[in-house]
Each structure stands twice: as structure tokens, then as C-alpha cells.
Amino acid sequence: MALANEELSTKQLLEAQAHVWNHIFNFINSMSLKCAIELGILDIIYKHGRPMTLSELVDALPNISKTKTQHVHRLMRILLHSKFIEVNISNEEEEHYWLTPASRLLLKDAPMTVAPLVQLILDPILTEPWHHLSEWLANDHHQSPFETTHGMLFWECAKHEPRLVSLMNEATSSDSRLVTRVLLENHKIAQIFEGIESLVDVGGGSGTMAKAIVDAFPGMKCVVLDLPNVMAGLQETNNLTYVEGDMFQTIPPADGILLKWVLHDWDDEHCVKILKKCKEAILGKGGKVIIIDIVLDIYEGGDKAMEDQLLFDMMLMTLLNGKERSEKEWAKLFLDAGFTSYKITPALGVRSLIELYP
């Protein structure tokens, strides 16, 4: 077994060095992407309506001096490598920048934009706890690294940081648009909502997902349950209402209870409490809980999707004391909460659709 560097071949040594360097410097990809979003580079290219040269891009960037032209070129080069930009070569052999499918998900005004999530996750308040991860692991307490760093829970901190709340609401709303499009355009998956006359979207925020569901199923009545600070100023309709409340206290009765990206925020004890409240709220024998969340090792999309699942899990451990769960761990939660059966459908890339029956 090779333990020392001198016992590695030169090829192994260089490959190992490249692998380590890639992980050391990988944060630069994230920060470069954040920079491009803050400068509006992707939106400028999109609004231009056709591929842009470097000089055209620099001219269009507000507050960027021409002296920074080569620096912008270096930024674009890393965005090209990470597949957020593609390059077309003109007859004059000049590079023209254009968008990729991934960068279209980062446009400011795109309905399914992921840009707020980029800005949220890379905000200094959320990145600082990662510097204290080893310190946290070495201490025997139940606080999250976030709480160890900032002296308060993430949700308490958010109350004092309206910017974070705004980014979080925007991120969850745009994600809900993406999820509902995938769900409703696939007829087999959309059938999960058929026969449900009433639905409660627990932690549904501004009601983006609920609105899309009732538009697709106009005979359904939908209630969005969330905290008072989230519900302010929202417009109700005939089949969509908003209820201020706490999911740990009570959930309005309905045929279906929807939990999208809720349970992974919480430890097992809190999850069982939420699920028990959901079970109490289900009307009739045909009712069910619909969960949209990650099931570890069940995904569509290959190694990238698996890595995304593991990264999400580390993020939840660091920021919220939450976790992603395997099917075995999910099944234990369901059993502890008094449910009898469940069905998992891997239909949302990294995430799965879980139907849970009393």
C-alpha cells in the first residue's frame, strides 16, 4: 500500500495533485458565478439578443472601466470552462459570448431563476459557518455550526436580515415554478393530484406552487399555511386561501397535505411531530401526504445528481441541523409518525416524490 509521495508513480503524483488543487480552488467557480450575477453579465448578453464580443460586453457593463477588459475576459474564460457561457467564433475569428441552458436558469427575470439561491448560499453570513465546521465537530453539543458561529439559529438570524428572507422567498418561489412545471407536464406524475378536492401546502410561502396546482386542477381548493411574516399582503382567490399558523401546532384539514422541501430542514424528532400533525389533518380514507424531498441514492442524472444530494446534506448539517435521508431513514420516520405505507417516485432529478398514506 502506497503511503508516501515517493511511492507513487509520477503520473499518480500529478493526477493526485490536480485532484487536490481542483477541490482547493473549486470555490472560485462559485464566486465567479456570483460575480457574474451581481454584474448582470448573463442578463446583458440575453437582452442583447445575439452573441456579444468582449468589447461589446464591457461597453454594456455599468461602472466597469475599459481598463478592466482583460480582467472581464479572464472571468468569462472560467464561466466558459464551467459551461455557463458558450463561445461562437465569427468570420473575423473574434469570440462572441452566448448563453447555455444552465445560464438561462440564472437570468434575473426568468420565472425559474436560480440566481437568488446562488446569492443566498454564497452570502458571507451563510459561508462563515463553514470555517468553523471542524471546531463544531470537535465539540459535544447540539448547536449547528451556524448557531455556533452567529450565536443564534438560522431562522432567528433571518428575522434580523430582511435581505436573506427576500432571497430565500425568491429562491423557493422560482424552485416551485420549476417543480410544478416538471410535475404538471408529465401526465403520469400529475395524476398524484387527481381526486384531491382540497390541498394544504405546508410552508408554501407566497403560494407559487399552490397557484400552479389549482390552475391545473380548477376544481381543487388549496390552502397555503405559513408563518405570519411570510403571508403579509398576499392576494387570495376563490380556490386559493392563505392561513397564518405553525405546522407544529395545527394543520388545516384536507384530502392532501403537501410538504415541499420542508422536512429536510428538521431533525427526526421535529419531522415526526410535523408528520403526526399532517396525519391528523387528512380527511377521509383516500387522503395522503405528498412529500417533495431528496431520498439519498435515489435520483435521476448520474454522478452529478448524487454529488448534489451529498452537498445538500452537508449544507443542512452546517446551517440548520437538518439532514437528507435514505429510504430506510424516511421509512422509520413514517412508521414513527403512524403511517402505514408509502411510494417513492424519482421524478425530479435530485429530488423524489413521496406519497405517504395513513
Automatic annotation (TrEMBL):
<keyword id="KW-0489">Methyltransferase</keyword>
<keyword id="KW-0949">S-adenosyl-L-methionine</keyword>
<dbReference type="InterPro" id="IPR016461">
    <property type="entry name" value="COMT-like"/>
</dbReference>
<feature type="domain" description="O-methyltransferase C-terminal">
    <location>
        <begin position="130"/>
        <end position="339"/>
    </location>
</feature>
<dbReference type="GO" id="GO:0032259">
    <property type="term" value="P:methylation"/>
</dbReference>
<feature type="active site" description="Proton acceptor">
    <location>
        <position position="264"/>
    </location>
</feature>
<dbReference type="InterPro" id="IPR029063">
    <property type="entry name" value="SAM-dependent_MTases_sf"/>
</dbReference>
<dbReference type="InterPro" id="IPR036388">
    <property type="entry name" value="WH-like_DNA-bd_sf"/>
</dbReference>
<dbReference type="GO" id="GO:0046983">
    <property type="term" value="F:protein dimerization activity"/>
</dbReference>
<comment type="similarity">
    <text>Belongs to the class I-like SAM-binding methyltransferase superfamily. Cation-independent O-methyltransferase family. COMT subfamily.</text>
</comment>
<dbReference type="Pfam" id="PF00891">
    <property type="entry name" value="Methyltransf_2"/>
</dbReference>
<feature type="domain" description="O-methyltransferase dimerisation">
    <location>
        <begin position="21"/>
        <end position="109"/>
    </location>
</feature>
<dbReference type="InterPro" id="IPR001077">
    <property type="entry name" value="COMT_C"/>
</dbReference>
<dbReference type="GO" id="GO:0008171">
    <property type="term" value="F:O-methyltransferase activity"/>
</dbReference>
<protein>
    <submittedName>
        <fullName>Hydroxyindole-O-methyltransferase</fullName>
    </submittedName>
</protein>
<dbReference type="Pfam" id="PF08100">
    <property type="entry name" value="Dimerisation"/>
</dbReference>
<dbReference type="GO" id="GO:0008757">
    <property type="term" value="F:S-adenosylmethionine-dependent methyltransferase activity"/>
</dbReference>
<dbReference type="InterPro" id="IPR036390">
    <property type="entry name" value="WH_DNA-bd_sf"/>
</dbReference>
<keyword id="KW-0808">Transferase</keyword>
<dbReference type="InterPro" id="IPR012967">
    <property type="entry name" value="COMT_dimerisation"/>
</dbReference>
